[in-house]
Amino acid sequence: MERKKNKKVIALFWPHMSRKVEKKLPEILNSRWIGQGPQVDSLERKFSSMFNLPYVVSVNNCTAALHLSLILADVKDGDEVITTPMTCSATNIPILYQRARAVFADIQENTLNIDPNSIRQKITDKTKAIIVVHWAGYPCDMDEILQIAKAKNLPVIEDAAHAVGAYYKDKPIGNISNYSCFSFQAIKQITSGDGGILTVQNENDYKRAKLLRWYGIDREFKGDIYSKYQIKEIGFKYHMNDIAATILILQLDDLAKVLARRRRIADIYRKNLNNVAGLELLESKNDRQSANWLFTIKVQDRQGFTKKLCGNGIESHMVHVRCDIYPIFGGRKLDLPVMNKVEDKYTSIPLHTKLTDEDLKRIIKTIKSGW
Ligand SMILES: Cc1ncc(COP(=O)(O)O)c(C=O)c1O
Fold it and tell me: Does residue 140 line the site of ligand 1, with CB under 6 A?
Protein backbone atom coordinates (compact mmCIF):
# COMPACT_ATOMS: atom_id res chain seq x y z
CA MET A 1 0.00 0.00 0.00
CA GLU A 2 1.35 3.42 -0.88
CA ARG A 3 1.87 5.89 1.92
CA LYS A 4 -0.85 8.56 2.03
CA LYS A 5 0.59 11.98 1.23
CA ASN A 6 0.59 14.92 3.67
CA LYS A 7 0.22 12.70 6.70
CA LYS A 8 2.64 13.12 9.57
CA VAL A 9 4.72 9.97 9.91
CA ILE A 10 4.33 8.44 13.35
CA ALA A 11 7.71 7.03 14.30
CA LEU A 12 8.19 3.74 16.11
CA PHE A 13 10.92 5.24 18.31
CA TRP A 14 11.88 8.74 19.34
CA PRO A 15 14.61 9.45 21.89
CA HIS A 16 13.61 11.34 25.02
CA MET A 17 16.02 14.14 25.87
CA SER A 18 15.77 16.15 29.09
CA ARG A 19 15.54 19.90 28.46
CA LYS A 20 18.30 20.40 31.02
CA VAL A 21 20.87 18.56 28.88
CA GLU A 22 21.54 21.32 26.37
CA LYS A 23 22.01 23.85 29.21
CA LYS A 24 24.38 21.72 31.25
CA LEU A 25 26.43 20.02 28.56
CA PRO A 26 28.59 23.05 27.55
CA GLU A 27 29.86 23.23 31.13
CA ILE A 28 31.12 19.65 30.87
CA LEU A 29 32.43 20.06 27.33
CA ASN A 30 34.52 23.03 28.49
CA SER A 31 35.73 21.39 31.68
CA ARG A 32 38.93 19.48 32.22
CA TRP A 33 37.13 16.15 32.48
CA ILE A 34 35.29 14.80 29.50
CA GLY A 35 36.61 11.26 29.90
CA GLN A 36 35.82 9.15 32.98
CA GLY A 37 35.70 11.60 35.87
CA PRO A 38 33.47 12.90 38.68
CA GLN A 39 30.25 12.74 36.64
CA VAL A 40 30.68 8.99 36.20
CA ASP A 41 30.95 8.58 39.99
CA SER A 42 27.88 10.81 40.50
CA LEU A 43 25.86 8.80 38.00
CA GLU A 44 26.71 5.54 39.77
CA ARG A 45 25.74 7.01 43.15
CA LYS A 46 22.49 8.34 41.72
CA PHE A 47 21.47 5.06 40.04
CA SER A 48 22.40 3.20 43.22
CA SER A 49 20.23 5.40 45.45
CA MET A 50 17.26 5.52 43.03
CA PHE A 51 16.90 1.75 43.00
CA ASN A 52 18.62 0.83 46.26
CA LEU A 53 21.37 -1.05 44.42
CA PRO A 54 24.57 -1.58 46.42
CA TYR A 55 27.01 -2.15 43.54
CA VAL A 56 26.68 -0.11 40.34
CA VAL A 57 29.34 -0.05 37.61
CA SER A 58 28.81 2.18 34.60
CA VAL A 59 30.15 1.10 31.21
CA ASN A 60 30.00 2.38 27.64
CA ASN A 61 27.10 0.11 26.58
CA CYS A 62 25.01 -2.85 27.64
CA THR A 63 26.94 -5.26 25.41
CA ALA A 64 30.04 -4.47 27.50
CA ALA A 65 28.02 -5.05 30.71
CA LEU A 66 26.91 -8.44 29.36
CA HIS A 67 30.47 -9.37 28.45
CA LEU A 68 31.76 -8.41 31.91
CA SER A 69 28.94 -10.42 33.53
CA LEU A 70 29.97 -13.53 31.63
CA ILE A 71 33.59 -13.07 32.75
CA LEU A 72 32.49 -12.57 36.36
CA ALA A 73 30.33 -15.69 36.05
CA ASP A 74 33.50 -17.53 34.96
CA VAL A 75 32.12 -18.49 31.54
CA LYS A 76 34.98 -19.86 29.47
CA ASP A 77 35.94 -21.84 26.39
CA GLY A 78 33.60 -24.79 25.86
CA ASP A 79 31.02 -23.80 28.50
CA GLU A 80 27.32 -23.55 27.71
CA VAL A 81 25.12 -20.56 28.50
CA ILE A 82 21.37 -20.98 28.37
CA THR A 83 19.72 -17.99 26.77
CA THR A 84 16.80 -16.81 24.68
CA PRO A 85 16.71 -16.56 20.88
CA MET A 86 14.09 -13.79 21.13
CA THR A 87 16.41 -10.85 21.62
CA CYS A 88 18.99 -8.53 20.14
CA SER A 89 22.18 -10.18 18.86
CA ALA A 90 23.94 -8.14 21.58
CA THR A 91 22.58 -10.45 24.28
CA ASN A 92 24.25 -13.50 22.81
CA ILE A 93 27.34 -12.32 20.93
CA PRO A 94 29.30 -11.82 24.21
CA ILE A 95 28.85 -15.55 24.88
CA LEU A 96 30.92 -16.10 21.75
CA TYR A 97 33.53 -13.56 22.93
CA GLN A 98 34.13 -16.05 25.74
CA ARG A 99 34.29 -18.95 23.25
CA ALA A 100 31.33 -20.52 24.99
CA ARG A 101 28.17 -21.90 23.32
CA ALA A 102 24.76 -20.23 23.33
CA VAL A 103 22.12 -22.86 24.11
CA PHE A 104 18.74 -21.51 23.11
CA ALA A 105 15.74 -22.21 25.31
CA ASP A 106 12.18 -21.71 24.11
CA ILE A 107 10.04 -18.71 24.99
CA GLN A 108 6.57 -18.19 26.48
CA GLU A 109 3.73 -17.50 24.10
CA ASN A 110 2.10 -14.86 26.28
CA THR A 111 5.21 -12.81 27.17
CA LEU A 112 7.88 -13.76 24.57
CA ASN A 113 10.23 -14.07 27.57
CA ILE A 114 12.36 -17.18 28.17
CA ASP A 115 10.35 -20.15 29.42
CA PRO A 116 11.62 -21.47 32.80
CA ASN A 117 10.49 -25.00 31.88
CA SER A 118 12.61 -24.92 28.76
CA ILE A 119 15.61 -23.63 30.77
CA ARG A 120 15.25 -26.67 33.03
CA GLN A 121 15.33 -29.02 30.04
CA LYS A 122 18.44 -27.42 28.52
CA ILE A 123 20.70 -27.70 31.58
CA THR A 124 23.68 -30.03 31.12
CA ASP A 125 26.95 -30.61 32.96
CA LYS A 126 28.48 -27.91 30.78
CA THR A 127 25.95 -25.19 31.69
CA LYS A 128 27.75 -22.28 33.35
CA ALA A 129 25.16 -19.48 33.42
CA ILE A 130 21.63 -18.49 32.45
CA ILE A 131 20.83 -15.25 30.60
CA VAL A 132 17.30 -13.89 30.63
CA VAL A 133 15.92 -10.89 28.73
CA HIS A 134 12.93 -8.89 29.92
CA TRP A 135 11.34 -8.54 26.50
CA ALA A 136 9.91 -5.06 25.90
CA GLY A 137 10.61 -4.25 29.56
CA TYR A 138 8.20 -6.83 31.01
CA PRO A 139 10.01 -8.85 33.70
CA CYS A 140 10.55 -12.59 33.25
CA ASP A 141 9.23 -15.14 35.77
CA MET A 142 12.17 -14.50 38.08
CA ASP A 143 11.02 -16.66 41.02
CA GLU A 144 10.93 -19.78 38.86
CA ILE A 145 14.18 -18.87 37.10
CA LEU A 146 16.03 -18.23 40.36
CA GLN A 147 14.73 -21.47 41.83
CA ILE A 148 16.11 -23.45 38.87
CA ALA A 149 19.42 -21.57 39.02
CA LYS A 150 19.76 -22.08 42.77
CA ALA A 151 19.12 -25.81 42.52
CA LYS A 152 21.99 -26.11 40.02
CA ASN A 153 24.17 -23.42 41.57
CA LEU A 154 24.16 -21.36 38.37
CA PRO A 155 24.50 -17.57 38.16
CA VAL A 156 21.71 -15.61 36.46
CA ILE A 157 22.49 -12.67 34.18
CA GLU A 158 19.56 -10.37 33.49
CA ASP A 159 19.78 -8.55 30.19
CA ALA A 160 17.75 -5.58 31.34
CA ALA A 161 18.43 -3.52 28.22
CA HIS A 162 14.67 -2.96 27.81
CA ALA A 163 13.87 -2.79 31.50
CA VAL A 164 15.25 0.27 33.28
CA GLY A 165 12.82 1.14 36.07
CA ALA A 166 10.90 -2.16 35.85
CA TYR A 167 9.88 -4.01 39.03
CA TYR A 168 9.30 -7.67 39.80
CA LYS A 169 7.28 -8.30 42.98
CA ASP A 170 8.36 -5.00 44.62
CA LYS A 171 12.02 -5.48 43.74
CA PRO A 172 13.62 -3.23 41.16
CA ILE A 173 15.26 -4.96 38.22
CA GLY A 174 18.95 -4.75 39.07
CA ASN A 175 18.54 -6.11 42.59
CA ILE A 176 17.34 -9.64 41.90
CA SER A 177 19.99 -11.77 40.19
CA ASN A 178 23.79 -11.98 40.32
CA TYR A 179 24.19 -9.59 37.37
CA SER A 180 21.93 -7.09 35.61
CA CYS A 181 22.82 -5.15 32.48
CA PHE A 182 21.12 -1.91 31.43
CA SER A 183 21.30 -0.05 28.13
CA PHE A 184 21.10 3.69 27.44
CA GLN A 185 21.56 3.29 23.70
CA ALA A 186 19.90 5.81 21.40
CA ILE A 187 16.33 4.49 21.38
CA LYS A 188 15.98 3.27 24.96
CA GLN A 189 13.59 4.93 27.48
CA ILE A 190 16.38 7.25 28.54
CA THR A 191 19.60 7.59 26.60
CA SER A 192 23.02 9.19 26.43
CA GLY A 193 23.50 8.21 22.80
CA ASP A 194 25.20 5.09 24.11
CA GLY A 195 25.79 3.94 27.66
CA GLY A 196 25.37 1.01 29.99
CA ILE A 197 25.22 -0.01 33.64
CA LEU A 198 26.14 -3.30 35.25
CA THR A 199 24.83 -4.10 38.73
CA VAL A 200 26.37 -6.88 40.80
CA GLN A 201 25.67 -8.25 44.27
CA ASN A 202 28.99 -8.44 46.09
CA GLU A 203 32.17 -6.48 46.72
CA ASN A 204 34.44 -8.93 44.85
CA ASP A 205 32.46 -8.73 41.62
CA TYR A 206 32.20 -4.96 42.04
CA LYS A 207 35.96 -4.46 42.38
CA ARG A 208 36.76 -6.86 39.55
CA ALA A 209 34.20 -5.25 37.21
CA LYS A 210 35.78 -1.85 37.85
CA LEU A 211 39.20 -3.22 36.95
CA LEU A 212 37.96 -5.06 33.88
CA ARG A 213 36.20 -2.03 32.46
CA TRP A 214 39.53 -0.17 32.21
CA TYR A 215 42.24 -2.52 30.95
CA GLY A 216 42.61 -4.24 34.34
CA ILE A 217 44.15 -1.08 35.86
CA ASP A 218 43.08 0.15 39.30
CA ARG A 219 42.25 3.81 38.67
CA GLU A 220 41.77 4.42 42.37
CA PHE A 221 45.22 3.14 43.37
CA LYS A 222 47.15 5.99 44.98
CA GLY A 223 50.62 4.39 45.33
CA ASP A 224 53.58 4.60 42.99
CA ILE A 225 53.05 4.40 39.24
CA TYR A 226 54.75 1.00 38.80
CA SER A 227 52.50 -0.63 41.39
CA LYS A 228 49.45 0.97 39.75
CA TYR A 229 50.23 -0.66 36.43
CA GLN A 230 50.62 -4.16 37.78
CA ILE A 231 47.94 -5.49 35.43
CA LYS A 232 47.02 -8.98 36.59
CA GLU A 233 44.03 -9.67 34.35
CA ILE A 234 43.36 -8.52 30.80
CA GLY A 235 40.71 -5.82 30.87
CA PHE A 236 38.88 -3.80 28.25
CA LYS A 237 38.09 -0.21 27.32
CA TYR A 238 34.51 -0.38 28.51
CA HIS A 239 34.26 2.62 30.85
CA MET A 240 31.70 5.41 30.53
CA ASN A 241 32.82 9.02 29.99
CA ASP A 242 31.68 12.22 31.75
CA ILE A 243 29.75 13.48 28.71
CA ALA A 244 27.49 10.43 28.68
CA ALA A 245 27.29 10.40 32.49
CA THR A 246 26.21 14.08 32.61
CA ILE A 247 23.44 13.39 30.12
CA LEU A 248 22.29 10.31 32.02
CA ILE A 249 22.24 12.04 35.40
CA LEU A 250 19.81 14.59 33.95
CA GLN A 251 17.85 11.96 32.07
CA LEU A 252 17.38 9.98 35.31
CA ASP A 253 15.55 13.00 36.76
CA ASP A 254 12.99 12.47 34.00
CA LEU A 255 12.77 8.69 34.28
CA ALA A 256 9.64 8.53 36.46
CA LYS A 257 7.83 10.94 34.13
CA VAL A 258 9.00 9.07 31.02
CA LEU A 259 7.91 5.70 32.40
CA ALA A 260 4.54 7.09 33.53
CA ARG A 261 3.82 8.42 30.04
CA ARG A 262 4.86 5.13 28.48
CA ARG A 263 2.65 3.23 30.94
CA ARG A 264 -0.27 5.48 30.06
CA ILE A 265 0.21 4.83 26.33
CA ALA A 266 0.46 1.08 26.94
CA ASP A 267 -2.76 1.21 29.02
CA ILE A 268 -4.57 3.05 26.21
CA TYR A 269 -3.40 0.48 23.66
CA ARG A 270 -4.48 -2.38 25.93
CA LYS A 271 -7.91 -0.91 26.51
CA ASN A 272 -8.56 -0.16 22.85
CA LEU A 273 -6.93 -3.12 21.12
CA ASN A 274 -8.36 -5.71 23.46
CA ASN A 275 -10.94 -7.12 21.09
CA VAL A 276 -9.50 -6.60 17.63
CA ALA A 277 -9.87 -9.61 15.33
CA GLY A 278 -6.48 -11.06 14.36
CA LEU A 279 -4.58 -9.26 17.14
CA GLU A 280 -3.39 -10.62 20.48
CA LEU A 281 -1.99 -8.59 23.37
CA LEU A 282 0.84 -9.91 25.54
CA GLU A 283 0.43 -10.65 29.25
CA SER A 284 0.35 -7.88 31.84
CA LYS A 285 0.27 -9.19 35.43
CA ASN A 286 -0.14 -7.11 38.57
CA ASP A 287 2.82 -8.69 40.34
CA ARG A 288 5.31 -6.87 38.08
CA GLN A 289 5.70 -3.46 36.52
CA SER A 290 6.90 -3.26 32.93
CA ALA A 291 9.24 -0.49 31.79
CA ASN A 292 7.23 -0.45 28.53
CA TRP A 293 10.08 -0.05 26.10
CA LEU A 294 8.15 -1.67 23.28
CA PHE A 295 4.47 -2.30 22.77
CA THR A 296 4.65 -5.72 21.16
CA ILE A 297 1.55 -7.46 19.83
CA LYS A 298 0.92 -10.64 17.86
CA VAL A 299 -0.98 -10.25 14.61
CA GLN A 300 -2.21 -12.51 11.87
CA ASP A 301 -0.87 -11.63 8.42
CA ARG A 302 1.96 -9.45 9.73
CA GLN A 303 2.89 -8.34 6.25
CA GLY A 304 -0.63 -7.07 5.64
CA PHE A 305 -0.66 -5.37 9.05
CA THR A 306 2.68 -3.64 8.41
CA LYS A 307 1.55 -2.50 4.94
CA LYS A 308 -1.69 -1.09 6.29
CA LEU A 309 0.10 0.89 9.00
CA CYS A 310 2.84 2.04 6.61
CA GLY A 311 0.19 3.21 4.13
CA ASN A 312 -1.21 5.37 6.90
CA GLY A 313 2.17 6.80 7.87
CA ILE A 314 2.61 4.63 10.96
CA GLU A 315 5.83 2.74 11.58
CA SER A 316 5.85 -0.77 13.05
CA HIS A 317 8.61 -3.37 13.24
CA MET A 318 9.71 -6.72 14.68
CA VAL A 319 12.71 -4.88 16.23
CA HIS A 320 14.68 -8.10 16.86
CA VAL A 321 14.78 -11.42 14.97
CA ARG A 322 15.46 -14.84 16.50
CA CYS A 323 19.16 -15.32 17.10
CA ASP A 324 19.43 -19.04 16.28
CA ILE A 325 19.22 -18.28 12.54
CA TYR A 326 22.43 -16.20 12.54
CA PRO A 327 25.31 -18.24 11.10
CA ILE A 328 27.48 -17.42 14.15
CA PHE A 329 24.95 -19.26 16.35
CA GLY A 330 24.46 -22.24 14.04
CA GLY A 331 22.40 -20.65 11.29
CA ARG A 332 19.30 -22.81 11.45
CA LYS A 333 15.90 -22.66 13.06
CA LEU A 334 15.99 -24.81 16.15
CA ASP A 335 13.15 -27.00 17.31
CA LEU A 336 11.64 -24.40 19.64
CA PRO A 337 7.86 -24.84 19.26
CA VAL A 338 6.75 -21.48 20.68
CA MET A 339 9.47 -19.48 18.94
CA ASN A 340 8.49 -21.19 15.69
CA LYS A 341 4.82 -20.47 16.30
CA VAL A 342 5.16 -16.74 17.05
CA GLU A 343 7.99 -15.76 14.73
CA ASP A 344 5.69 -14.67 11.91
CA LYS A 345 3.28 -12.89 14.22
CA TYR A 346 5.01 -10.47 16.55
CA THR A 347 5.53 -6.80 15.81
CA SER A 348 5.76 -3.57 17.79
CA ILE A 349 3.84 -0.34 17.37
CA PRO A 350 4.94 3.21 18.32
CA LEU A 351 5.70 3.88 21.98
CA HIS A 352 7.66 6.95 23.07
CA THR A 353 7.25 10.30 24.81
CA LYS A 354 6.81 12.28 21.59
CA LEU A 355 3.63 10.33 20.77
CA THR A 356 0.60 12.63 21.14
CA ASP A 357 -2.95 11.63 22.06
CA GLU A 358 -3.89 12.46 18.45
CA ASP A 359 -1.21 10.08 17.17
CA LEU A 360 -2.55 7.38 19.46
CA LYS A 361 -6.09 7.86 18.20
CA ARG A 362 -4.87 7.58 14.61
CA ILE A 363 -2.90 4.40 15.32
CA ILE A 364 -5.82 2.76 17.13
CA LYS A 365 -8.33 3.78 14.46
CA THR A 366 -6.10 2.45 11.68
CA ILE A 367 -5.59 -0.89 13.42
CA LYS A 368 -9.28 -1.23 14.31
CA SER A 369 -10.30 -0.71 10.70
CA GLY A 370 -8.55 -4.00 9.85
CA TRP A 371 -5.79 -5.02 7.44
C1 LIG B 1 17.92 -7.03 24.62
C2 LIG B 1 19.13 -6.19 24.32
N3 LIG B 1 20.29 -6.50 24.88
C4 LIG B 1 21.40 -5.78 24.67
C5 LIG B 1 21.37 -4.69 23.85
C6 LIG B 1 22.64 -3.95 23.59
O7 LIG B 1 22.63 -2.69 24.18
P8 LIG B 1 23.81 -1.66 23.85
O9 LIG B 1 23.51 -1.10 22.50
O10 LIG B 1 23.70 -0.64 24.95
O11 LIG B 1 25.09 -2.40 23.89
C12 LIG B 1 20.19 -4.30 23.23
C13 LIG B 1 20.16 -3.13 22.35
O14 LIG B 1 19.21 -2.70 21.82
C15 LIG B 1 19.02 -5.07 23.47
O16 LIG B 1 17.86 -4.77 22.89
Answer: no
Residue 58 Cα to ligand 1 midpoint, Å, equals 15
Predicted TM-score (pTM) of the model is 0.97
pLDDT in tens, 193-215: 999 999 999 999 999 999 999 99
Distance CA 230, CA 243 (A): 29
Closest-CA residue to 299 (of 318, 285, 283, 322): 318
Q: Which fold has domain 20-251?
A: Aspartate Aminotransferase; domain 2 (3.40.640)
CA–centroid distance, 302 to ligand 1, in Å, is 24
Q: What is the pLDDT of residues 343-355, one digit of tens each?
A: 999 999 999 999 9
**Rounded to whole angstroms, how far apart are CA atoms 252 and 238?**
21
Comma-separated ranges of CATH 3.40.640.10 domains in the chain: 20-251
CATH of 255-368, one of 3.40.228.10, 3.40.50.790, 3.30.70.920, 3.90.1150.10: 3.90.1150.10
Q: Is the CB of 244 under 6 A from ligand 1?
A: no
For residues 207 and 195, give the distance between their C-alpha atoms in angstroms, rounded to a whole number.
20
Q: What pLDDT does 4 receive?
A: 62
